[in-house]
Each structure stands twice: as structure tokens, then as C-alpha cells.
Automatic annotation (TrEMBL):
Source superkingdom: Bacteria
Protein name, UniProt field: Peptidoglycan bridge formation protein FemAB
InterPro entries named among the record's database cross-references: Acyl_CoA_acyltransferase (IPR016181), FEMABX (IPR003447), PG_Glycine_Bridge_Synth (IPR050644)
Keywords recorded for this protein, A-Z: Acyltransferase, Cell shape, Cell wall biogenesis/degradation, Peptidoglycan synthesis, Transferase
PROSITE patterns in the record: FEMABX
TM ranges: none
Family: Belongs to the FemABX family.
Amino acid sequence: MSCRLKPITREEHLAFVGARPSVSHLQVPAWGAVKPDWRAESLGWFDGNGRLAGAGLVLLRPVPKLRRYFAYLPEGPAIDWSTPHLEQWLEPMLAHLKSRRVFSVRMGPPVVMRRWSADVVKAAIADPQARRLREVEATSHEPQAFALADRLRRMGWQQTEPDGGDGFAAGQPRYVFQVPFAGRSLEEIRGDLNQQWRRNIKKAEKAGVKVVRGDAEDLPAFHQLYVETAERDRFVPRPLAYFQRMWTALRAEDPDRMRLYLAHHDGELLAAATMLTVGTHAWYSYGASTSRKREVQPSNALQWRMMTDAYELGAELYDFRGITDTLDEANHLLGLLRFKVGTGGRAVEYLGEWDYPLHKVLHKAVGRYLARR
């Protein structure tokens, strides 16, 4: 099939998203409003019959003084990645972005490569010889994804994630943890939680932990807890204004696109998290917790309430987002992996993010500059 690409309206893009089971929450039109330092544009791919067959949200970041742009399609675009004629989809996009004075394009194909069951991940964590998840035999493979990676390389695309590190790329996570809901009852999902998770949920209930939905006025309290979490877990927190933009933009597009949950005990806020939903896919987006009163298990109670609500919204997949690739006991992220594995879901490896240098010299120069930051 031959594709014609052109910019589309926000309404056309949103209608396309609504007609699909799901696309990434980073590919909905409203996400552009969350990123004020980027210029957002919705692109549409039209087939020979004039039907909108694919769409993507591209974010354009200007390079000061150069009047050139870096283009980013996080976890997108939403096109037919299984087609044997991928060039007919990607080449029009590159041509369009080049006309916009873009010097480099980054995209994140939403394509799964491998999956590991919770039991396999648990065994790997316990194995002193296992160093990285990518080195552990996967429960299932997607051969077409490996073929797609080879095709992208032949087309001139370059994979961005370095071989080292902990599996968290500079952009979106390549390794995530997901709990499938499709075709399962809520009782079956709860039954797959490990013994510790079920015990902690009961302990929270017995202790009187209350999990409630929050609103815009609760964002400052969430953010205060989030900053505490950032200091403890050694990451740079986003400002409160970022979450306020998310709340305003995403909920204006769909009231259930973003939710805030708060876990209290005796009137004290102990944990909080945001949940995003697009179609049948729900994501645990940002989480926060205090070190106080951990014995009442507020984080387990919070997540179970979010999973329950996601199920009632019709979600077929609950996504815990990024996990570490390293299985090193010394890595502080391993505890987070253990927490997620306890849900009985599966670790998932995506194809990762890919760059295409439209201006090779500028692409390399900016890459070196960013590497030194």
C-alpha cells in the first residue's frame, strides 16, 4: 500500500485514537500540551482510499540559534508495524520532518520483542549467576520484532539505548512490567498476586488504610510526597507545574485519561500515585510514598485499588511501566522490580527507541553535547 502523509487536526487524531483498542498515552493529542518546551504536531497516514490508517504525535524541540529541530515520537507512531512495506510509512515521515528543518528524528516503535513470566524473573533475581534480564531465557519471543529491528537498521535507523546501564534509556523505558487483564476475572488476577502481596493488602485493610481518588487540589500534597521519594530513590523530580499541566490537558481530552489516588492512615498521607488510561491500556504513571508507617503497607493497598478501578474501566492490560534490566543486588532499583514481580505479571522488552540522522554532522554534535550534560 502507498501512504500519503500530512498534518492532521487534533480532532482527527483523537478520533483515530478512539477507534483503536489503545495507543500509548504519549501519543494522544493532549500530550503535546504537557510539554510546553516542545512544539507538537499531529501527523496522519492516509491509504489509497483516503482513509486515515495511522497517526503520530511528533514533538519538535528547537536547537537555540540554529533554527533546527529535534523530532521525537515517544512510543509511536501508531502505524502498521507488521507491514512488509515499512519504507512506505517511514520515508514520507522523514521527508515531511526534513521539510520542517528537523536534523534528527527519534521514535519508539510500540512493538514487543520478548516476555518473561513472573516465575522466571523471580528465579533470575535469586540466581547469583544472572546479571541482566536480557541474558535470561525469555518465556516467549516475537520473531517479527527481531526482523523489524534488522529492517530498521538497513533503512539507516540507529538504536539509541547503550549496551550498558540499568535498562532505563534516556527516553522511554525499554523494559516494563505488565499484568494482563484480558479474559480474566478480578478474582483470578488477585489470586496471581504472590503471598506477600495478598498478606500486605489484608494487613493494610486491617490497619485501616483508606485509598481515595484525588482531585486537582490534591496535587501539591502528592508532589510533596513525590519529592521525598525522589530524594530517597535518587532521581530528579519533576516540578509541580508539570503534574498540573498533565491534569489539565489530559482530563480535558478525557475525564478518565488521568486519575490521582491517595492512601491515608489516621489522616496522614502515606502514598500516592497517578494512573493514565487510553482505550484498554492502563498505566501506573508516577508514584510517591513516605518512609513512615511502612508496616501498614499503603503502597500495596494503593496499587490494588488502582488495578481494581482499571479493571472496572475495561482495561485489558495494567502497565507498571519501567523496570531495571540489572539483577545486581547492589542496584537500588532491584527492590522496585521485586515489588512489581509480586503481582504475578510479566516483564516485557520493547523494541526500544531509534534515531534517524537527517543531518549527520549536527546529529553527532548535539549527541556529544547531550552526553556531556
